[in-house]
Design a protein that fits this description.
Layout: H1 21-38, E1 52-57, H2 63-74, E2 78-83, H3 95-103, E3 109-114, H4 119-124, E4 130-136, H5 142-156, E5 163-167, H6 174-185, E6 189-193, E7 209-211, H7 214-218, E8 223-226, H8 242-249, H9 253-256, E9 264-266, H10 279-282, H11 290-309
Parallel strand pairs: 1-2, 1-3, 3-4, 5-6, 5-8, 6-7, 8-9
The structure holds aspartic acid.
Length: about 325
């Protein structure tokens, strides 16, 4: 595949906030090309040949980690995966010490997931390589928003003018934050639907419509995006019981009935079936895009790596003349 021109000149990808509509569209266009390539038998390219990609995961992950690794390998990079289990992070090494140690091995791109908001940004200031945020606390998860946008754009042909309802645990969700930035930048109308306890205090400043009732929030929506209750980020009870939560906020066919007849369902995973979504709705092959989101994840991560690689130096920092 020949190098497609791209409007993206950042050294790091730390969040969607701050990216322009042109930059987002450019990554999505490039990702579209990788979707086609990933559906062929020979999926391998030399774009990142000779480059080293390190995945540093301080928090659990299935989709994000596997798809970044696959993306790196398909572009020809050498990939190393480091997780909390089996590394010195377990022995108490600090985030910065771990990053500096890895930095000394001259990686070209570091993909980092961390439980603290802002940790990936901090780390990016200490290393010489490019850094991609694979999710930091409840702050941002930029590649998730990009893959969601690609999935929507391929199905609906556009983002502009669509009504997207994001439902559930908005308070703890980095997916919600990144998606809100992206969708608003691209001209979509965003609604959030959640109980008061699962909304941030300053939600009125986010430029979204706020609803506490699913039937109102979903009325005439084009896209219904469900979020997981992030129990690992909660200290205390945010909902009376999971059963009651499902009754009021779980997506079932009755609630979906008020959305547009061709409304599509999304979920970033992992899903809690029977908590935020009825299993039948999640598995509805005509309405649910959940599997497609996973496929788009690999293509979007290839596009992000490709875009960043175009600005990588040809010699490790400190060795360049
Ligand atoms: N996988 C997404 C994330 O890492 C969503 C979730 O965990 O619920 O934020």
């Amino acid at each position: 595949m020949s190098a497609a021109p791209i409007v993206f000149s950042h050294r790091h990808l730390l969040g969607i906030e701050g990216l322009s509509g042109g930059e987002i569209a450019s990554i999505l266009d490039l990702a579209d090309r990788y979707v086609r390539q990933n559906r062929q038998i020979d999926k391998k390219q030399n774009t990142l040949r000779g480059r080293t990609l390190v995945l540093l995961f301080f928090e659990n992950s299935t989709r994000t980690r596997a798809s970044f690794e696959l993306a790196g390998k398909r572009l020809g990079a050498d990939c190393v995966v480091m997780t909390t289990e089996g590394s010195s992070i377990k022995k108490g090494e600090t985030l910065i010490d771990t990053a500096m140690t890895l930095n000394a091995m001259h990686p070209d791109v570091l993909v980092v997931r961390h439980q603290d908001s802002g940790a990936v940004n901090l780390l990016s200031q200490k290393v010489n390589c490019s850094v991609i945020n694979a999710g930091d606390g409840s702050h941002e998860h930029p590649t998730q928003a990009l893959l969601d946008a690609l999935t929507i754009r391929r199905r609906k042909g556009r983002l502009e003018g669509l009504t997207v309802a994001i439902c559930g645990d908005i308070l703890h969700s980095r997916v919600a934050r990144s998606n809100i930035h992206l969708l608003r930048t691209m001209g979509a109308k965003v609604r959030v639907v959640a109980p008061v306890t699962l909304l941030p205090g300053h939600i009125d400043k986010w430029g979204v419509e706020v609803h506490h009732d699913m039937k109102r929030g979903l009325a005439d929506a084009d896209i219904v995006m469900m979020l997981r209750l992030q129990l690992e980020r909660m200290n205390g009870a945010f909902v009376p019981s999971l059963r009651e939560y499902f009754h009021f906020y779980g997506l079932d066919y009755a609630k979906l009935g008020v959305a547009k007849p061709d409304a599509l369902i999304m979920h970033p995973g992992p899903m809690n079936r029977g908590v935020e979504i009825d299993p039948e709705v999640a598995d509805d092959i005509d309405r649910s895009l959940i599997r497609e989101q996973v496929e788009m994840g690999v293509a979007v991560r290839m596009a992000c790596l490709d875009a960043l690689a175009r600005h990588l130096p040809n010699l490790p920092a400190g060795m360049a003349k």
